[in-house]
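Try this one yourself first.
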């Protein structure tokens, strides 16, 4: 068995046995597990299984409260914001849940030109975005991944009023070590890839054609990324395809494998739930639908199990659910998103009704624009952050975790969140949003220790004096 091309770490029998052993909730074990989690050293898969088994509402509440406390201690009120940029919907795979699947004739398809990619990026810059996630189907025009590399260069080169995108994350099909090396040279932030399901028979049933049929090539992709020097990777799976408890434990063993082999797990976990998609019967009626209560429980359990790993929630979810999930563990959200290539230009201004559904990958549940999301967050006392400091200073992979685990990273994250939020308020916000934001910043400054406050005030002063892109 070769860990560079096969999921050698995936032991379905062990996961099933662990779920079976924890079929019934045991209050004493839950209490013991929560006490362990509050020490902030994380949980193993068996601990997680004990928590995922809980059905009693009061016991679930205890898990939610513990997760909220862990979230607050590690992340404070910071929320990282980003936008996806879909640059192509051409795809050679037949994933039954996705509008971009190759045999779907009900979707308008296109691959953006470099000029169009520049235009999309500049629209997002005008809104105030600094962090983008590039997304595409798996069939690139031209040869190999050159089109992807050109796209990244185009996004980084785009300028609007002197502002530029400071961090490009990508969500792409798995690559060879050699192609990962070329991707790494483009200075990407996170390489994201969702396994969709860790259950092999389900995987085979829902991926009917194309290179994505190869489960092992996909499940071993982070090994190749790390071998190529990309140490910042984002995992995820598509909830709704198979049993959510099985999937969550498998995800934790995937993280465990990377930690064992490379000394660092993943930087982020995405938790997409299947949403309606044009031309997909499966997406209209997922085989294993995951309800809101169970969804929130799994987010809380992930928060406790891997406390220093970011959890990402996209605009697939509606505003109410996103608010609840933020309290329990989510640390990054997208805002003002479109999931169709060219969607920002096409639906310029407002799109509260998924008018691009016939060209989009799936339906969005939160159609508010960036400023509406920011005003809402600030009103709730959150600090929206566009920070890219760690990546720019080379604090990635194991270096990041070595700072995060003893609690040192928040001494950088909070000042950087405040300075990037202040930039947004000064350069892009309406007077009403600015007032809400300044209020949230003042409350945040009151709650911090002297040293962090001093650093924050220095960065805020610099931004207010006209400097941009200041971070520590
Ligand atoms: N095409 C590449 C791939 O499949 O890995 C790159 C990203 S794909 C465009 C982004 C992700 O969207 C997929 O990994 C899948 O989890 C998610 N997705 C696909 N169809 C979806 C749906 N109907 N609802 C929610 N998420 C969906
Ligand atoms: Fe293509 Fe990705 Fe959609 Fe599958 S999920 S059809 S690979 S875009």
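Now uncover the answer:
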């Amino acid at each position: 068995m070769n860990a560079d091309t096969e999921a050698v770490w995936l032991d379905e029998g062990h996961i099933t046995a662990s779920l079976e052993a924890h079929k019934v909730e045991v209050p004493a074990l839950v209490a013991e597990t929560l006490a362990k989690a509050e020490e902030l050293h994380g949980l193993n898969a068996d601990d997680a299984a004990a928590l995922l088994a809980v059905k009693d509402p009061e016991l679930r509440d205890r898990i939610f409260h513990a997760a909220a406390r862990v979230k607050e201690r590690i992340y404070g009120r910071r929320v990282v914001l980003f936008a996806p940029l879909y640059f192509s919907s051409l795809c050679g795979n037949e994933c039954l849940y996705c509008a971009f699947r190759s045999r779907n004739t009900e979707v308008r398809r296109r691959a953006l030109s470099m000029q169009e990619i520049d235009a999309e990026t500049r629209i997002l810059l005008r809104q105030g975005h600094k962090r983008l996630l590039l997304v595409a189907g798996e069939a690139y025009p031209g040869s190999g991944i050159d089109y992807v590399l050109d796209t990244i260069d185009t996004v980084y080169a785009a300028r609007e009023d002197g502002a530029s995108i400071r961090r490009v994350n990508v969500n792409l099909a798995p690559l060879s070590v050699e192609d990962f090396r070329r991707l790494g040279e483009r200075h990407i932030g996170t390489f994201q890839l969702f396994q969709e399901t860790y259950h092999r028979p389900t995987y085979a049933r829902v991926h009917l054609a194309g290179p994505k049929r190869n489960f092992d090539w996909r499940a071993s992709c982070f090994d190749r990324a790390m071998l190529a020097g990309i140490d910042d990777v984002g995992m995820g799976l598509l909830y709704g395809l198979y049993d959510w408890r099985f999937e969550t434990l498998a995800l934790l063993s995937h993280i465990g494998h990377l930690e064992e082999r490379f000394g660092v797990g993943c930087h982020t976990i995405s938790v997409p739930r299947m949403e309606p998609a044009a031309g997909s019967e499966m997406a209209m009626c997922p085989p294993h639908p995951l309800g809101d209560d169970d969804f929130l429980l799994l987010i809380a359990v992930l928060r406790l199990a891997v406390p220093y790993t970011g959890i990402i929630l996209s605009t697939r979810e509606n505003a109410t659910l996103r608010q609840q999930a933020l309290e329990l563990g989510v640390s990054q959200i997208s805002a003002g998103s479109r999931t169709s290539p060219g969607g920002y230009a096409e639906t310029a201004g407002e799109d509260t009704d998924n008018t691009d559904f016939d060209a989009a990958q799936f339906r969005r549940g939160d159609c508010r624009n960036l400023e509406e999301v920011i005003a809402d967050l600030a009103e709730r006392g959150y600090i929206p952050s566009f920070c890219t400091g760690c990546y720019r200073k080379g604090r990635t992979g194991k270096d990041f975790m070595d700072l995060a685990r003893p609690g040192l990273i928040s001494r950088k994250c909070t000042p950087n969140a405040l300075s990037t939020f202040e930039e947004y308020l000064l350069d892009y916000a309406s007077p009403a949003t600015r007032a809400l934001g300044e209020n949230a910043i003042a409350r945040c400054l009151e709650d911090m220790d002297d040293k962090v406050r001093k650093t924050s005030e220095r960065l805020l002063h610099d931004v207010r004096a006209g400097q941009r892109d200041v971070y520590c």
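Discussion: Residues 57-75 form the longest helix (19 residues). The CA atoms of residues 108 and 359 lie 5 Å apart.
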